[in-house]
Amino acid sequence: MRRVDELEGQLAFQDELHESLNVTVARQDREILELKRQLVLLNERLKEFGDAIPGAGPQDETPPHY
Question: What is the pTM of this model?
Fold first, then answer.
């Protein structure tokens, strides 16, 4: 009977750990999605900013070997 109790204890611990990991992964997934959204917005703003400055585009830069 002692082995059954130990196994039940281990199973309960693993269930709690599994649920905790699921919560962590779900939170990280939401954070990653939010960071990706913010990155897209930031890239759009940087592009708009670069378009507003004459000569700021990479196509107008003189290559370093000239």
Answer: 0.64
Find all residues with CB under 8 Å of 56, minimum gap 6, and list them. 50
Q: Is there a contact between 30 and 36 (Cβ–Cβ < 8 Å)?
A: no
Encoding tokens for residue 41? 């917005």
Amino acid at residue number 49:
F
Which H/E stretch holds residue 28? helix 2-52
* Coil vs helix vs strand at 10: helix
pLDDT along the chain (66 residues), means of 10: 94 97 98 98 91 66 72
- The total number of residues written for the chain in this structure: 66
